[in-house]
Design goal:
Length: 373
């Protein structure tokens, strides 16, 4: 938690709320540029689309990975040129493609012939890139089930693109969100590099490789730093492409905004539910439906603090009348023994994927407030 956030929280704002330090966002962006100087940074808007964040990044010359037409329009409103936006969702409405094309968005992702044909019809002459499925081992939030195609199928699709009036521009992959191991990038780069070579032999020379997102932040457990990921990625790119590197794109979201935010929450209830269970159950005024969706399966394990003094084991749950609104039962969390209703709990490193996951009014609870400093 930065001094700026700590000072703001001293005023006891209404909870639940997210407080983001924009100076930390700026510093994270610069750290990414330093770690991967050969890559163009396309901020993954879905991580946190707050206008303050988009405006900051647009002013710094960042590019943007958008998942929907509203995200594209938010980037444009923040001052980003359409040429700096990639429509990175492989599942897009035809009307959204047409609108993006009219705005001047140049890049479109796909991973099926049906999507490729849709782009050809609504965005003639556009640059397209095919997303390849790669192993997500090491990721706390895997993405392989829904997105990506095989190398063999990608080859067929890229070779078909010119006949549809499209420009086969490049390939992409995603190693999974909160990827904690560098080999995931190394193996993925090696996999797509072979397809670059194969397509070149077939007369199709691609110009771009999109490394996707996945760069992690420290939650409860330490992860390798950005410089370690940067070195591993660059070493692998050079090993497979030599000095003839394609244009490199990367789509960080969590790594830009994750550690810039803190959620302040109020304890609603502390109780012992079962005599045989030594843990107290701590119910907060924010839960899985209030923005902490990434606690599903206890995948993302946030650092949580409250008060001082001796601590004991707890389970953590949200305020709603839904039985799955439980954040942590298995992960061993400890909170102060004197914790009681009305006390404040801080959930750290929550700048990414919290506000956008919050339900509108589930059980009547309003979305958490947002403060950008």
């Amino acid at each position: 938690m930065t001094p700026k956030i700590a000072s703001f929280l001293d005023a006891s704002p209404a909870t639940p709320c997210l407080v983001v330090d924009l100076d930390r966002v700026d510093a994270n962006y610069e750290a990414l540029r330093a770690a991967l100087p050969a890559a163009k940074i396309y901020y993954a808007v879905k991580a946190n689309p707050a206008p303050q964040i988009l405006t900051l990044l647009a002013a710094k010359g960042a590019c943007f990975d958008a998942a929907s037409l509203p995200e594209i329009e938010a980037c444009l409103k923040a001052g980003a040129p359409a040429s700096a936006i990639s429509f990175g969702n492989t599942v897009k409405k035809a009307t959204a493609i047409a609108a993006a094309y009219k705005y001047g968005v140049p890049l479109y992702a796909f991973d099926s012939i049906e999507e490729l044909e849709k782009i050809a019809h609504r965005a003639p002459g556009a640059k397209v890139y095919c997303r390849i499925a790669v192993a997500n081992e090491g990721a706390d939030w895997p993405l392989t089930k829904k997105f990506g195609t095989t190398v063999e199928r990608a080859r067929e699709l890229m070779l078909a693109a010119p006949g549809l009036g499209l420009v086969p521009h490049g390939l992409s992959f995603h190693v999974g969100s909160q990827q904690t191991a560098t080999p995931a990038y190394e193996l993925a780069i090696a996999k797509v590099a072979m397809l670059f070579t194969d397509l070149k032999a077939s007369g199709l020379e691609l110009k771009m490789l999109n490394l996707g997102g996945g760069l992690p932040v420290n939650y409860r457990e330490d992860v390798p730093g950005l410089e370690i990921f940067g070195d591993a990625i660059m070493d692998t790119l050079i090993a497979h492409f030599g000095n003839d590197l394609p244009e490199i794109l990367i789509e960080p979201g969590r790594a830009v905004v994750g550690n810039a935010g803190v959620v302040a929450s109020e304890v609603v209830l502390v109780c012992r539910r079962m005599a045989a269970d030594e843990r107290r159950w701590v119910y907060l005024d924010i839960g899985r439906f209030g923005g902490l969706a990434e606690t599903e399966g206890e995948a993302i394990r946030y650092r949580i603090t409250a008060g001082n003094g001796a601590t004991g084991p707890v389970a953590l749950a949200g305020p709603s009348c839904d039985g799955v609104d439980i954040m942590y039962e298995k992960t061993p969390y400890q909170l102060p023994l004197d914790l009681q209703a009305g006390d404040r709990v801080l959930i750290h490193d929550t700048g990414a994927y919290v506000t956008t996951y919050a339900s509108r009014n589930f059980n009547g609870f309003a979305p958490l407030e947002e403060h950008y400093l």
